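pipeline/complex-builder :: batch 7 item 3
reading input block
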Amino acid sequence: MMRQTVDKVTVSTRTRGFYEITREIESRVERAKVQTGLCTLHLQHTSASLLIQENADPDVRRDFERFFARLVPDGDPLFVHTVEGDDDMPAHVRTALTTVNLSVPIAEGRLCLGTWQGIYVWEHRTVPHRRTIVVHIIGDER
Amino acid sequence: MMRQTVDKVTVSTRTRGFYEITREIESRVERAKVQTGLCTLHLQHTSASLLIQENADPDVRRDFERFFARLVPDGDPLFVHTVEGDDDMPAHVRTALTTVNLSVPIAEGRLCLGTWQGIYVWEHRTVPHRRTIVVHIIGDER
Amino acid sequence: MMRQTVDKVTVSTRTRGFYEITREIESRVERAKVQTGLCTLHLQHTSASLLIQENADPDVRRDFERFFARLVPDGDPLFVHTVEGDDDMPAHVRTALTTVNLSVPIAEGRLCLGTWQGIYVWEHRTVPHRRTIVVHIIGDER
């Protein structure tokens, strides 16, 4: 018997950086009581991303910040859209270079993540934000 | 009762730039009569992207063009594949740096987009093209 | 009648580069006996990507390598995380700039890929790896 749930997860960010939501999403999958299925996450914003990346060495996340700060520098004179500050347009570009959408299969009642994969909200703005992720789960009842 | 629809949306592009399809996709969701579900878009091309981005200030889209023109310049001597012109390989790279795939949950019969999120076909070629998006909808009958 | 399958495809990579899996995924769709549906691929790694790109001229893939080698150079002194070598952190960044997730609709029993679209595992590490892709298929029985 096929079933579905749609739910929301909110994350309060303090500044630019990575906020892990793996446990939270896993607990939603647990609660959905789905044996085999698909879990889709959609972040409802245009200046933050969803990213699946290494959950072990924190240097990986710090290097990501360094690389993206160089690739899409705050205050770049190229940008006209600076309504919300120096990090406004860079936040949009960083979002487009990554993604706001993820779909991960569910097998034996669990998300099919790899051993080193964690799910993160990557905040690209330097000021605090409240970010909402819509979580859709479809699958066979456990 | 679970149902599905598969449909196509076509967009005629004039030149490089953003072509909004939010209303068109929303009307397909409306017609599918799905209450809770998932809407997946797949663009069948390798030199244009699907992008969810800010639908308010048009400067955002202009800044996107400026940034990508600098990051992946037309006529870059690095590129060997120039069969269709200076913008041929840059169009492929711009597509890979963004995406051709999106999945957005449906709740209460509507796409769960954020307030400022619009769905765009981002044409990366400078000459006109006809672009096809496959729209798959699955969910509970309304 | 709605059905689902979850399956794995593994790819042994020799070095950095593109490994086409289109035929393999198409045969999984064939075996799933789904008429209309959705096929989701999830690569369980953080240093290789899934990419839909041109399957005709091999120069396209070579140009992709050249462009990404310049954009995210191996041995960049910016990076602190170099545990597994010069290509360690660049492989993570290249993965984040592309994706590990794809969802392609199925119509009339076949993947809705465009004429020139192939599905690739893009290996970003220079040493051989064994890569696993989880393949989830949901749809109406054929």
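note: The mean pLDDT of chain A is 97.
queue -> next item
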